[in-house]
């Protein structure tokens, strides 16, 4: 008669969602970088020249919308 073996499936099941969360977090960061770059380009096309503080204020305003 064969003994039943025990498998730890919980450890394996948690690896997949963790990997998915990491990939999702990376894609969110990349999307935020692109949105920030878009907003900076939009502001600089309108203003041509600006100070860092003015750019920062305008950028936070644009990204909140």
TrEMBL record:
InterPro entries: WH-like_DNA-bd_sf, WH_DNA-bd_sf. This is Uncharacterized protein. It comes from Euroglyphus maynei. Gene3D superfamilies: Winged helix-like DNA-binding domain superfamily/Winged helix DNA-binding domain.
């Amino acid at each position: 008669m064969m003994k039943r073996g025990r498998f730890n499936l919980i450890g394996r099941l948690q690896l997949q969602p963790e990997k998915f969360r990491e990939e999702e977090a990376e894609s969110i960061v990349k999307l935020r970088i692109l949105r920030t770059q878009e907003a900076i380009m939009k502001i600089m096309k309108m203003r041509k020249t600006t100070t860092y503080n003015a750019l920062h204020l305008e950028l936070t305003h644009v990204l909140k919308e």
